[in-house]
Amino acid sequence: MELRYATHPDHANTFTTEELRNHYLIEELFVPGEIKLVYSMEDRTIIGGIQPAASSIALESYDAIKADYFLERREVGIFNIGGNGTISVDGETYEMANKDCIYIGKGNQELLFSSTNETEPAKYYLFSAPAHTTYPTKHVSFQDVPGDAMGAKESANERVIRRIIHLEGIQSCQIAMGITILESGSVWNSMPTHTHNRRMEAYLYIDLDERARMFHLMGEPTETRHLVMKNEQAVISPPWSIHCGSATSNYAFIWAMAGENKTYTDMDQVSMDELR
Predict the structure, then answer these.
(1) What sign does the dihedral 11-13-14-18 (CA atoms) show?
(2) For the segment 79-134, what is each residue's pLDDT rounded down to a tens digit?
(3) pLDDT on residue 82
């Protein structure tokens, strides 16, 4: 488990490109047969990837969280962005197709991750945060989640957003999580942009052509910076930072938040003329 410290915006303004990448970009999440985890001090979230190969992989505790098992004091939201697989939660098995989501609450002890076909492995993206109570485990098929159409082709941000773990959906202590899919010809996400000092956020970019690149914007609205990213990379967004971007082709991204509240619409909008 890699540890990432929280940063002050004044400090972040002094970072070189390499320092920005080291602090906020998660370049490699999915390695065959392995678990990759990043513990961020931004709201004490854990961002990770699990790619089972021929055998199942168990998610267990780590010294960094000083717990007897991973979800002793935590909750977790998980998306499968790969081939079909299963997740076993204390002996109960859930089928996970591509883009399916599962929420697993505090107190569940045995978590086993499997791929149905080793040649087309499942890729489990997880986002975990501290939890104060236990909500029930709940699996949702991507096909069963109604999407909200937003944006327009003229502004290159025609997209469908699916909110899955949120106030009106799967219940959690503090995690809010969903997926946004951009239509062909659209490339901009979350613009006009916003901040929310109540919550940190993480983006995982997926379904981006391997030759394409994402230009993710971050930083204070008047002190913007950017990260050049590629497919299946994630970025940590501190509460004070904007989080938006544009790519050289269309794509999808999984957004995940944790912090003071779960209110998706609680955003501090940034007008276009504020950006620098």
Answers:
(1) positive
(2) 999 999 999 999 999 999 999 999 999 999 999 999 999 999 999 999 999 999 99
(3) 98
In sequence order, what are the residues at sequence separation of 6 or more whose Cβ sits closer than 8 angstroms to the Cβ of residue 54? 33, 118
Q: Identify the CA nearest to 205 among candidates 245, 156, 242.
A: 245
Binding residue numbers for Zn(2+)? 194, 196, 201, 243
Binding site, residues? 194, 196, 201, 243
Residue 248 DSSP label: S
- Token duo for residue 121: 């492995």
- Alpha-helical segments (H) within 109-252: none
Q: Which residues pair with 178 in a beta bridge?
A: 163, 255
Q: How many CA atoms lie within 13 A of 209 on its CB side?
A: 10
pLDDT given for residue 195 in this prediction: 96
CATH number of 2-269: 2.60.120.10
Question: Chain-centre distance of CA 74, in angstroms?
Answer: 16
In angstroms, what CA-CA distances link 257 with 48, 55, 67, 114, 121?
A: 14, 31, 23, 26, 26
Residue 177: both structure tokens together: 């999580």
Q: If pLDDT is split at 50, 70 and 90, which confidence band does 186 have?
A: very high
Q: What are phi and psi of 209, to 5 degrees?
A: -50, 140
What H or E segment, with its residue span, contains residue 128? Answer: strand 124-130
Whole-prediction pTM: 0.97
Domain assignments of the chain as residue spans, ordered by start: 2-269
pLDDT tens digits along 15-48: 999 999 999 999 999 999 999 999 999 999 999 9
Distance, in Å, from the CA atom of 182 to the CA atom of 156, rounded to the nearest integer, reads 9
